[in-house]
Request: fold
Amino acid sequence: MSDIAIQVDRIHKIEGDSKLKAFVDISLDGVVIKGLRVVSGVNGLFVSMPCHQGKDGKWYDTVYPVTREKRQELSELVLQAYKE
Reply:
């Protein structure tokens, strides 16, 4: 199986002094994933995956990269697009 092309479809930047900096939609070979977030944390900007709140009140990622390398690749792509 070949590598799937990942691209940023849409970035909606948030104005103001919030830790949330942007909402991002990406596409993976024709499939769109909505709801990634660029967040300002203690160690700088990071990408948060789409999530939902379970019946137990905890938050769970709806979409997540399986490997550390894929998470890093996705984060770099989203943060580079955010900074442009």
Notes: The helical segments are 68-83. The chain has a mean pLDDT of 91.
